[in-house]
Design a protein that fits this description.
Elements (H helix, E strand, L loop, with lengths): L4 H13 L2 H8 L3 H15 L4 E3 L4 E3 L1 H24 L7 E7 L7 H12 L3 E7 L2 H10 L4 E7 L13 E9 L1 E5 L9 E3 L7 E4 L20 E5 L3 H9 L5 E3 L11 E7 L5 E8 L6 H11 L5
Helix pairs in contact: 1-2, 1-3, 1-4, 1-6, 2-3, 5-8
Length: 299
């Protein structure tokens, strides 16, 4: 086999983005150019690499095998480019992705620890939904992914080999409400009182349900405002535009005019924050970053 680097990059992008169209947009190619690169890889490998679905594509078993080796090749090429550009030889780069609310608490705390204790580690970060982070981890464009999990806490995806996950936090949800209005001054609210309120929620996707609405409410919730960014949601709450669910550790970054209240009368809704990685023995640098994400110094 003599696959081109361009073809391997296209394969990795398809694995991460889940479609030819999204991969073409990321790489700046036409969709037909992406299709030609995959066709060339399939001729070189003698196997079908992508399975066309009703919506998007996914890699076949042969595609996943080639992707596993493509990650190694592309990482080595990137390392060579950094050395040729005179990058610091003693600095270790770690790419971390995180779901959106983790950017308010988990990432800043971890980066403070690493700056203080491990200046030899340089972390780059990006935010995305949990399904997108899992795809990026599989594609090799992330080294670690901070993801969320809700009961019954199944594996992040059905691909093999299974990802390795460690729980770094587990907490219940609470409700962010305006400081003035029907919930003002309350420490808790019954689940029955949440029927008919305006909700501020993240748009649902095929891989992740609506976020921001209390789970299990009777009837269809009225989503008045859709936003992915947590600070946007909280500012909308402060403006009296509705309510939203949040993890209680966001209390430290609440804007003025927002209060947190417990919800009573229904099952407790708990969320886990996990750090996920590909299987295999982690390096000491990876372990240090995981420890920092847990909020502790690894020494």
């Amino acid at each position: 086999m003599e696959p081109s680097l361009t073809g391997l990059r296209v394969l990795r992008s398809i694995a991460e983005r889940g479609s030819f169209t999204a991969a073409a947009a990321e790489l700046g190619y036409s969709q037909s150019a992406v299709s030609r690169q995959i066709a060339a890889l399939e001729r070189e490998s003698g196997a079908m690499l992508c399975e066309r679905l009703r919506v998007g594509v996914r890699l076949t078993e042969s595609g996943l095998i080639l992707l596993r080796h493509a990650r190694v090749v592309l990482d080595e090429i990137a390392m060579a480019e950094r050395e040729l550009e005179g990058a610091e030889p003693d600095v270790h780069d770690v790419r971390v992705g995180a779901f959106i609310s983790a950017g308010a608490i988990v990432l800043p705390r971890a980066l403070r620890i690493l700056r203080s204790q491990r200046p030899d580690i340089r972390v780059t970060t990006r935010e995305a939904t949990t399904p997108a982070l899992v795809r990026a981890l599989r594609a090799g464009t992330l080294d670690l992914a901070v993801i969320s999990s809700r009961a019954p806490h199944r594996a992040p995806d059905a691909e093999l080999p299974a990802l390795v996950t460690d729980t770094i936090d587990e907490t219940g949800l609470v409700l962010a409400v305006p400081a003035v209005g029907p919930f003002a001054g309350r420490a808790s609210v019954s689940v029955e009182k949440l029927e008919g309120v305006d909700w501020i929620a993240s748009p649902s996707t095929s891989g992740e349900p609506l976020l921001g609405v209390w789970p299990g409410l009777a009837g269809r919730p009225r989503v008045a405002h859709a936003a992915r960014d947590w600070m946007t949601k909280l500012q909308l709450v402060a403006a009296g535009c509705g309510v939203t669910t949040v993890p209680p550790n966001l209390a430290a970054v609440l804007p003025d005019g927002v209060k947190l209240v417990r919800v009573e009368g229904g099952p407790e809704e708990r969320r886990r924050t996990l750090v996920a990685r590909l299987p295999g023995r982690p390096s000491r640098v990876t372990v240090a970053v995981i420890d920092a994400l847990r909020g502790r110094d690894s020494g």
